[in-house]
Amino acid sequence: MAGPPASRIGQDAAHAGEDRSAVSSKGSAGETGEIFVSSRDNPVYRRLKKLADSARARREARMTLLDGVHLVEACLDAGGSLHTLVRATSADASVLFALSERSPGVRRICLSDALFADLSPVATPSGILAEAGWFMPAPHPGQALVVVLEAIQDPGNLGAMLRTAAAAGATRAILSPGCHDPWSPKALRGGQGAQFVLPVETAVDLTDWLSHFAGDCLALTLEGSSSLYDRDLARPLAIIVGNEGAGLSPAVCHAADARVRIPMHGRVESLNAGAALAVALFEAARQRS
Question: What pLDDT is stored for residue 12 in this prediction?
Answer without folding.
Answer: 46
